[in-house]
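Dear colleagues,

As part of the handover before I leave the project, I'm documenting each prediction I ran so the next person doesn't have to rerun anything. This entry is a single chain, and its sequence is reproduced below.
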Amino acid sequence: QAIFQLISSLLVDATKDKGEALTLMLTGGRTASKLYDYLVSKGEFVTGKYSYYFGDERCVAPDHIDSSYGLARSTLFQGIEPHSIERIKGEASSPEDEAVRYSAILPNSIDILLLTVGEDGHIASLFPNGKALSQEQKVVYVTDAPKVPSNRITITPNVIHSAKQVIVMAAGNEKGKILARALIKPNDYDELPVRLTIGLIWILDHDASTVFKQHAPNEYHKTRIIYA
């Protein structure tokens, strides 16, 4: 739980002396689910100080087990007024139209962007060699994932580059290994999309930290590595 405590502290600190709600972009997955449960259980995370957005969504209904919004709704969003949440409508009949709609409502710069990294190096629904990685004009894109549900709507690298603060969570041995590998060829985003976050904040749990320290090169390319 040390990794979640660190992230909680970063989120709480970000709201201090802030007169308006921060924009917080959420992610999905098992690690995110555990983080949201932790934040609610501790009661230190003041939900009213954030306006919520999502980094990606599966093209499924919000009550589907694979919905990123559904995950957040059942954990973090207990008791939050819906007007503070801007979700991607995965159930939309036209994912392409939904990508255009979501692009139009996204802020120019997200205050805090939360991401988890996959064992293949993906972040959000930016997968290795995916078409979304090369989108220079769009900020939200419909893409196919190598795992089901395969049809997804995701932010593009543009959103990551423009965010004020990006936090990548890594839990487990394989995640530590993939982050260490990412630092070796930092500009090859197609191979490992997590390289888009080099130079930002990576928070590693105990298992990820142990493996990362064993395999990482000496050069971190200004990435802030935090070991939980």
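The chain has a mean pLDDT of 94. The first helix runs from residue 2 to 15.

All the best with the project,
I.
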